[in-house]
Amino acid sequence: MHPILANRQRLAVYLTAWFPIAALLTAILARGTELSWFEALVIAGPMCLFYAFLCLAAWYICRSVPLRNRAALPAIGMLTISTLFSSVTWVLLGRSWVGSLEFLPAFAGLSIRYTNQAAIILFLTGVLLFLLAVAVHYLLLMLEDSRAAERRALELQVLAREAELRALRAQIDPHFLFNSLNSISALTIPDPAAARRMCLLLADFMRTALSVGAKDQITLSEELRLTESFLDIEEVRFGPRLVVKYRIDPECRDCLVPPLLIQPLIENAVTHGIAPLIEGGIISLEAVRRGGMLEIILENPYDPDISRRNGTGLGIRNVRERLANKFAAEAGVEINKGQSLFRVGLRLPCVRKGVQ
């Protein structure tokens, strides 16, 4: 359906724009013919109302013959025919309207005063108005196509980003799940009670992870609770060898972060840092808000020789790519390797819950 006819407000604005055209046509007819001002107004008013709707047909013509290089001549031909047909139709309607008015006593002899000059004025005015309508409709179509292209590009970008994020999350979940199942398997014989407790903790963690993973963002407090749930599982396996110290700024607890942001980093710290060390170690997790940015710092001891052989796992790479997809250049991941201390720093915009 025509976009103007589909919206009453647009139709009202469109018809209002024809009032000055009707006034101008009235003046032209009154000055250029033998018609009085009143007669010119009675003719021009209804005629402009009819032509306003007739010019809307230009929308469908413009859509059917788009202006492209390869179709320029057919388009010009089609538009020429449409313009002449519309203007001739308008002139014929004008004569019919004048003939109808002449039956009224106040307009006796109107057809005599409505000379061929008036018909020529209507014809030329009709050509100009229809060409103006064609130009406006082509402009509207260009704007519509531009908006549609931008919308499609944005939709494709969003779909691609969502697909990539889902793929990255899908990499994280099986990676952690396989490690946990291996740990449960290792505990089954020496410590069945611990294996059973680890199964229950794993089920609870996966249930929570699936729930928050469906969200685009969660608060840092929710992410920390998820991290603590993960560490409860790992503590069953490592016991006193695994110690975690938190330094969380209360001002950043309601900052929104992508779900499962810290968990893969903690998993990386446990798998590649604590697990190879006989004596275990301390994982330090700090979160602080500086200005409009949230900084998360994770430190853990590690064995450089073992780390060089085994790498750092998927965790850090996934986090880096997810932040790049979500925040582009506004966020970043910084990695520092000391002699025996591994440090990961995250920096991302701190958007607080409930604040636009």
Envelope shape: rod-shaped
Using only CA atoms, what is the Rg? 37 Å
The major beta sheet can be summarized as: 5 strands, mixed
What's the structural domain tally? 2
What is the CATH third-level topology name of the largest domain? Heat Shock Protein 90
Cα separation of the termini? 37 Å
Give the averaged pLDDT, no decimals: 84
Structural class: alpha+beta
Continuous helix count: 11
Question: Strand order within the widest sheet?
Answer: 2-4-5-7-6
Overall helicity:
55-70%
Low-confidence stretches: none
CATH-defined superfamily of the largest domain: Histidine kinase-like ATPase, C-terminal domain
CATH architecture of the largest domain: 2-Layer Sandwich
Give a count of the beta strands, DSSP E runs of length 2 or more: 7
Strand/helix succession: HHHHHHHEHEEHEEHHEE
State the CATH class of the largest domain. Answer: Alpha Beta
Assembly annotation = single chain
Explain this structure.
With 356 residues, the chain is an alpha+beta fold. The protein folds into two domains: 8-152, no CATH class; 189-349, 2-Layer Sandwich (Heat Shock Protein 90). Helices cover 65% and strands 13% of the residues. It contains eleven helices and seven strands. It has helices at residues 8-32, 37-55, 58-64, 72-101, 110-113, 116-188, 192-213, 220-238, 263-274, 304-310, 315-327; strands spanning 218-219, 242-248, 256-257, 281-290, 293-301, 332-337, 341-349. It has a five-stranded mixed beta sheet, with helices on one face. A hairpin with a 2-residue loop joins strand 4 (281-290) and strand 5. The longest helix has 73 residues, at 116-188. The chain is rod-shaped. It starts with 7 loop residues before the first helix and ends in a 7-residue tail after the last strand. The relative contact order is 0.07. The model has no long low-confidence stretch (mean pLDDT 84).
